[in-house]
Amino acid sequence: MTGSITDGVVAERTAFRISLLGPMHVSVRGAAAEPKAGRLRVLLAALALQAGRPVSNSRLAMAMWGDDLPDHPRRSLHTYVTRLRGVLGEHLIGTRPDGYALETPPERVDVLQFGHLLDGLDAVDDVHERRRRLEAALALWQGDPFQDLRSMWLESVVAPRLTERRLAAIEARVDLDLVQGRGEGLAELWELTALHPLRESLWSRLLVLLSRAGRPGEALAQYEIIRARLAEELGTDPTSDLRAVHAGLLAGTVRWPVEPDGP
Questions:
Q1: 31-53 per-position pLDDT tens digit
Q2: pLDDT digits (tens, 9 = 90+) for 161-203
């Protein structure tokens, strides 16, 4: 009997899946199991970000209530955990000395899977493997992280870090395309520069792709737009990489990656 109970617990924990890189989706044994209440959803997200590891009561309370703590936060947290167990199953959330843990492998959480695919990528020499991992990581994104959750901690601390890593991954994939002579990604970069208008690393790659597409005049016009925006909003000049791309456009010899400045 004990063996069958243990097998059932393991099956329950490995049959769990949660997506947070976009709208929250939760399933247990293939069936939707999403909590409806807003704070229950935030509690589950905070636990999922550390799947398999304990999350302290203070961290969970910060995610759920921010500075507006209830009179008895530990007691209130316990009540929410009990409710969440009722939605997911009693074995998915374990109790720890100073907190709780979501008892599921990290690969069942898209945020953690995303990080795992990118970790150590710089040490991967095979171009095809680098592309495979980048594309697999980026395919996990279905929108903005935590986009249907309301938590100041998730929105202001966790989400920006994830977004930054996603942008860096996109740039790394574009770099692979450029080195291999592929001209893909132009539409995506147009969209991203509109969303992140002061991120010069995106603009550098956009200008190179425009030049590769036979549109150097348009690339020069876009350079003037970002140069003026940087001066007006930040009071700065473009970075050396962006200036090097501009110089290459003027000379008709755009290279990527750009050559480092001389001494």
A1: 899 899 999 999 999 999 999 99
A2: 999 999 999 999 999 988 887 777 899 999 999 999 999 999 9
85 CB-contact burial (10 Å; exposed 0-12 / middle 13-18 / buried 19+):
middle
Q: What is the dihedral of CA 92, 95, 96, 100, to 10 degrees?
A: 60
| Cα 237–Cα 243–Cα 245 angle in degrees, nearest 5 | 150
Report pTM: 0.89
Start-to-end CA distance of the chain, whole Å, equals 74
CA–CA separation, 52 and 38 (whole Å): 23
Q: How many residues does the chain have?
A: 263
List strand residue ranges (DSSP E) for the chain, in order: 16-19, 25-28, 31-32, 55-56, 93-96, 99-102
- Residue-level pLDDT at 8: 56
Q: Are strands 16-19 and 25-28 parallel, antiparallel or unpaired?
A: antiparallel
d(CA 153, CA 46): 10
Give me the phi and psi of 175, to 5 degrees please.
Answer: -60, -40
Distance CA 43, CA 88 (A): 12
CA dihedral 213, 215, 216, 220 (to 10 degrees): -120
Cβ atoms of 50 and 93 closer than 8 Å: no
For residue 102 the two structure tokens come to: 């979501």
Cβ(56)–Cβ(98) below 8 Å: yes
